[in-house]
Design brief:
alpha+beta; efflux transmembrane transporter activity; 4-stranded antiparallel sheet; elongated; 61% helix; single chain; Outer membrane efflux proteins (OEP)
C-alpha cells in the first residue's frame, strides 16, 4: 500500500509533463541560390536602411518620419498587438490555480401578531464567507499548447504591425513620386504652351506679311488649345496624389496641398540596391514572419484539440465559515471540503476527432499560405529588379531623345523665322519635344516607383527608427 501511495504522486508528475500534438518546426521550401538579375551576395539587415533618403528630398523624409507615428493603419495594428498581449496573458493565467473569495451578511427578523407568532422574534445577524480554489491539472498539455498558440498569435500581431509600416512606406513614397510626376507634367505643358503661343504669334505676323496662310494660324491655335486642355487633368491627378498622402498621414485631404504646391524636381534614385539572395527574404520580410507565426499558432491548436480526447483532473476545495448572532446567543461554524474530480470523455459521436481533423487542415492551409507568401516575395523582387534595370535604360535613351528634339525645334523655329522652312516643320518639332518630355517624365516616375517596389519587396526600411516589432521570449 505504501508503494502505491508513493508511486501515485510520481505518476501524476510524469503525466503533467506530457504534451500531445505536433511540435512546430520552421517550415522549409526550395528557393533559388540567387535572383536572376541579382548577385549571390547576401544582404545585411535591410530593415534598418532608410532607402527613401536616396531621393535627397527633405520634404519626403519629413513625410515618412511624421507618417510612421500617425498612419492610421499602423496605429490600428499596434492596437491589435495590445489585444493579442491580453489574450496571451489570459492563456498564460489559465494554467495556474484559480482562487475565489465571496462574503455575505444578512439581517433577518420575523414579526407577527395573534396565533401566528407568539412574540416578536429576535433579530438574527448571519455572516458567511467562502474561500474556493480550483486547479485543472494539465496532464496532456492543453493549456501549454494554448499558451503556445497565443504566443505565436502575439508574434504574428507584432509582424503585422511591421507589415503595416512597410505598406505605409510603399504607399506614401509612391504617392509622393506620383505627385511630383504630375507637377513635372504640368510644368512641361506650361512650357510647351508658352512655346506654342510664341509660334502662334509668329504665324499671325507671317500672315499679316503675306508669308503664311490662315490654315497655318488655325493649326497653331489648335496646338495651343490642345495643350491648354491637358493641364486640368494633370492638376486633378496632382491633387488626388496629395490627398492620398494626407490620408496616409492621418490628416484632412488638403492639409499638405499648399506645401507640396511649391514644387520640387522629380525623385530620382541614383543609389544602387543590393537585393541579397532569396533566403534573405525569410528574415527580412515581415509578412513572411507573420505567416510563419500563424502556422505555429495553427500547429499548437492541433495539440489543444488532441488534449480534449484524454481525461482531465481538477483539484478543488473550499472553506466556508459562518457566524450567527442574536440578542440571546451567538455561534459560528466552519465547513470545508477538498478533493479531485475526474472528467473522462467516453462518447461524443466523433466531435473531438473531427475537431482535430479541422485543426490539422488549418495547419496545412497555414503552411501553404506561408509558402505562397515566400514565393510571392521572390516574384516581387524579381519583377522589381527587371523593372529598375530596364527602366534605367529607358530613362537614359529618352534623355538623349529630348536633347535631340529640343535642338531640332530650335533649328526648325529659326529656319521658319527666316522663311526657309514651313510652319509644319515647327509644329512637328514641338509635338516631338512635348511627347519626348512627357515620356521622359513618365520613365523617371516608373524608375522611382520601381526603386520603391524593390526596396519594399526585400523588406527594407520599416525599422529604420529602431521600431522593429519583435516580441520578447516569454
Amino acid at each position: 500500500m505504501l508503494k502505491i501511495r508513493a508511486a501515485a504522486p510520481l505518476a501524476m508528475l510524469l503525466l503533467s509533463g506530457c504534451v500531445v500534438g505536433p511540435n512546430h518546426e520552421a517550415p522549409q521550401t526550395a528557393l533559388p541560390v540567387k535572383f536572376s538579375e541579382g548577385s549571390a551576395r547576401a544582404s545585411a539587415d535591410v530593415t534598418l536602411a532608410p532607402w527613401w533618403t536616396a531621393f535627397n528630398d527633405r520634404r519626403l523624409n519629413g513625410l515618412v518620419e511624421t507618417g510612421l507615428g500617425q498612419n492610421l493603419d499602423v496605429l490600428q495594428a499596434i492596437e491589435r498587438i495590445t489585444s493579442a498581449e491580453a489574450n496571451f496573458e489570459a492563456a498564460d493565467s489559465a494554467a495556474f490555480p484559480q482562487l475565489n473569495v465571496s462574503a455575505d451578511h444578512q439581517v433577518s427578523r420575523t414579526n407577527g401578531t395573534g396565533a401566528l407568532v407568539s412574540r416578536d422574534s429576535d433579530t438574527t445577524n448571519t455572516t458567511s464567507g467562502t474561500l474556493g480554489v480550483s486547479w485543472l491539472i494539465d496532464l496532456f498539455g492543453q493549456y501549454r499548447r494554448s499558451k503556445e498558440s497565443a504566443k505565436a498569435t502575439l508574434d504574428a500581431a507584432y509582424a503585422s504591425a511591421d507589415v503595416a509600416r512597410l505598406t505605409f512606406l510603399s504607399s506614401v513614397v509612391s504617392a509622393y513620386v506620383d505627385a511630383r510626376y504630375y507637377q513635372e507634367r504640368i510644368a512641361i505643358a506650361r512650357k510647351n504652351l508658352s512655346s506654342r503661343r510664341e509660334t502662334l504669334e509668329l504665324t499671325r505676323l507671317q500672315l499679316e506679311a503675306g508669308a503664311a496662310s490662315r490654315l497655318d494660324v488655325v493649326q497653331s491655335e489648335g496646338l495651343v488649345n490642345s495643350t491648354l486642355a491637358e493641364i486640368p487633368a494633370l492638376e486633378i491627378s496632382f491633387r488626388q496624389s496629395v490627398h492620398r498622402i494626407s490620408l496616409l498621414l492621418g490628416l484632412p485631404a488638403t492639409s499638405l496641398l499648399a506645401d507640396l504646391q511649391k514644387g520640387a524636381s522629380q525623385p530620382y534614385a541614383r543609389r544602387g540596391v543590393n537585393a541579397g539572395v532569396p533566403a534573405d527574404l525569410i528574415r527580412n520580410r515581415p509578412d513572411i514572419r507573420a505567416a510563419e507565426r500563424n502556422l505555429a499558432a495553427a500547429t499548437a491548436e492541433i495539440g489543444v484539440a488532441e488534449a480534449a480526447l484524454y481525461p482531465s483532473i481538477t483539484l478543488s476545495g473550499s472553506i466556508s465559515p459562518t457566524l450567527v448572532a442574536t440578542s440571546a446567543a451567538s455561534g459560528s461554524a466552519t465547513s470545508w471540503g477538498f478533493g479531485p474530480s475526474l472528467n473522462l470523455p467516453i462518447f461524443d459521436a466523433g466531435a473531438r476527432r473531427a475537431n482535430i481533423k479541422a485543426r490539422e487542415a488549418a495547419a496545412r492551409e497555414a503552411y501553404l499560405a506561408w509558402k505562397q507568401t515566400v514565393l510571392s516575395a521572390v516574384s516581387e523582387v524579381e519583377n522589381a529588379l527587371v523593372a529598375v534595370s530596364r527602366t534605367r535604360q529607358t530613362v537614359s535613351a529618352l534623355t538623349s531623345t529630348v536633347r535631340s528634339y529640343e535642338e531640332a525645334l530650335s533649328l526648325a523655329t529659326a529656319s521658319y523665322r527666316d522663311g526657309a522652312s514651313s510652319l509644319l516643320d515647327v509644329l512637328d518639332a514641338q509635338r516631338n519635344v512635348a511627347s519626348a518630355q512627357a515620356n521622359l517624365a513618365q520613365a523617371v516616375q516608373q524608375l522611382a516607383n520601381g526603386y520603391v517596389a524593390l526596396n519594399v519587396a526585400i523588406g527594407g526600411g520599416y525599422a529604420w527608427d529602431g521600431s522593429k516589432a519583435v516580441v520578447a521570449s516569454r
